[in-house]
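Q: Here's a chain of 607 amino acids. Please give me its 3D structure as tokens.
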Amino acid sequence: MENQKTISNLPTVVDILLQRASYQPNQIAYTFIQPGKIEAKNLTYKELDQQARAIAAKLQSIVAIGSRALLIYPSGLEFIAAFFGCLYAKVVAVPAYPPRRNQNMSRLQAIMADAQPTVVLTVGSLLRTIEVHFTQNPELTELYWLATDNLDNDLAQTWERPELCSNSLAFLQYTSGSTATPKGVMVSHGNLLYNSALIRKCFDHSSTSQGVIWLPPYHDMGLIGGVLQPLYCGFPVTLMSPLEFLRKPLNWLQAISDYKATTSGGPNFAYELCIRKITLEQRENLDLSSWEVAFNGAETIRSETLEQFVTTFEPYGFRKETFYPCYGMAEATLLISGGLKAGSPVVYHINESALEQNQVVPGVQGQEGVQKIVGCGLTWSNQVVIVDPELLTQCKPNQVGEIWVSGLGVAQGYWNKTLETEQNFHAYLGDRGPFLRTGDLGFLDNGELFVTGRIKDVIIIRGRNYYPQDIELTVEKSHLALRPNNGAAFSVDIKGSERLVIVHEIERSYLNKLNVNEVVGNICQAVVEQHDLQVYAMVLVKPGSIPKTSSGKIQRHACRTRFLTGSLNVVKDWSENPQGKTEFLRLKSNVEFMLRQLSTDKTNVTS
């Protein structure tokens, strides 16, 4: 068997799979636990190589090198083969969340309009589901649809290896923040290999490691951390459907126990779900002693969650030092910072009032006005600086500023978006640069990165980013009683989870004839259909009362503050747990919402 040093010197992901298939052909690379079935499906390196060659050969016969291929797959091994098939053909893969029957296609259409794919890869069963949308969306019929699960593996013999290098574009990772204008992060083979090496170093992975991943592969954490990292290090990984985890969180921990996993993880809410949903009786059969790296990312990391999880699962082998808080985003391929594998999470106590003024002042645990913040680890080989976002000067050690990142893991920019690429990927600090502007606020202390908030008004719920302006547009179009351009969407912390709040002005002509049930119902349904989000609370306010800047821009932070302090000029208000207020039937189950909120996004691992 070749050693990891040889693998590390290879220039592309294709070279790595070819090397694995040559030296370890019969080693199981991926195992997928099938929902409701005892028997799992396996895929060896040799089998994956053969399937990738066959898919690549077919692609080479129908599209040109550099074309984009949209990948729409359910959870399973077929996605992995299709992804590598694209790499083998030098076709740019575009992973996308598979639409459900009767679901709005706007996000998928927006991605298609931006990436302009010439072919869509999927499986036969899902293709039949998607075909019902063809009459309403005629642009779908203009694409070549290929069900890869029906291909003849003999096609592999006709595959011709294309010229590839580290700078070759591998895939587009679409952020989920904006339905109207999604941005495709351009990730090269070099980006993937650099970040894979960084993850291996941070997690201390080796060929003896074992992964268990439930994160969807169209999410950068699921794809890069769950599919490519095991290939890079040569260890097996067991995959499972996100839906199976969300329906029954015990499935995740049981898989870790059964397969003796050393690495697994997910967003903070995953650990919270395990705490709430796994009973004492169910825990008795768990053995989590093999778990070495429990990475926590994609949303705010809460110290309370870490503490409760340790208390709950320590009797079954889980150790506090297993927790691995980290920070990253799709624009930096995946990982930016992470802790020491053998160390416990770093938790600071800081003064809340000072933090609101972007100052770092230590506080005493237990005192009023002191909050706990979890460190996101060291920056390792990435260069991270904290910068005043207005003055564009480096901050002092006790100041909070924007997190800027430089390194070989920083992606190439946004597909077909020159201005946004220049603004976000080409920042300079004097003569130093270029840097990626993350849009996140934080500070460094003894090399440890702490993320404190966001400059932009991005809403992060269950690991997925949402741009408030998109939600606000959806809301204002949902009912004539709502004043255009006079609403705000933001999130608030409710019992450890971020929840969506809507504040919107009512048209003056509707003040005396407002049908609250109808307006609330329309808003909730529109937000569900367009964004797969539940509204936790909404406040309908009087005309002209939404806080704005002098130039007429909505001040969302000010609006949020007024909501929390109860100082909005309320006409009617509502919440999902109304206690005497207007009641409204939930439109869909919590499981469906959480599943959809795991689709692709900018993985801002802590904030």
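Q: Can you summarize the key feature?
A: Residues 579-597, 599-607 have pLDDT under 50 and may be disordered.
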